[in-house]
Amino acid sequence: MDLFRNALAYLGDGSNWGGHDGILPLAVSHLKITLIAVLLAAIVGLSLGIALGHARRGGSVVTALANLTRAVPVLGLLALLATNGSLGVTATSAILALAVFAVAPILTNTWTGVSTVDRETVEAATGLGMSGRQVLLGVELPLALPLIAAGLRTAL
């Protein structure tokens, strides 16, 4: 109960909200680190997932990558990056560690979404004269969007 009162007293003190080490500047810094990490992971995960899913290849690679990143703890990777002399414990090392772990759900869900689009739907689009790119952009991605969004949500 004492811990709860101390937390309320800390939050109620206006001096803790401003300044360099205040709650609001640290919250903004946290959001920036999160958004940059997920953006980097989305660039990698979406690109690979769309390419592999459209080709309907690479399922074992995607699964292996996803399982590999789940086996390594985030704090362990952050500590490993922090021991590197050029990075240290910085926002950059945190962004890199978080981006590595955010790639797996984005890549897995993107690959699954694109590669599981019904074959007959893709054949029908091709039969209508659509090119491979048109099939991808007009058929596969719209149908895969719910799974892609779920992967992005999980990464966030």
SSE layout and pairing:
Elements lengths: L1 H11 L10 H33 L3 H13 L2 H9 L8 H25 L3 H9 L4 H24 L1
Q: Provide the β-strand percentage band.
A: under 5%
Low-confidence stretches: none
Give the fraction of residues assigned to helices. Answer: over 70%
Quick one: biggest sheet? none
Which of globular, elongated, flat, extended, rod-shaped describes the shape?
elongated
**What would you call the quaternary organization?**
single chain
Query: How would you spell out the order of helices and strands?
Result: HHHHHHH
Whole-Å distance between the termini?
32 Å
**Structural class given helices, strands, pairing?**
mainly alpha
- Give the rounded overall mean pLDDT: 87
Describe the protein.
The protein has 156 residues and is an all-alpha fold. It has seven helices and no strands. Helix 2 runs parallel beside helix 5 and helix 4 (74-82) packs across helix 5. The mean pLDDT is 87.
Question: Which terms would index this structure?
Answer:
156 residues, mainly alpha, 79% helix, 0% strand
Summarize the structure.
The chain is mainly alpha-helical. It contains seven helices and no strands. It has helices at 2-12, 23-55, 59-71, 74-82, 91-115, 119-127, 132-155.
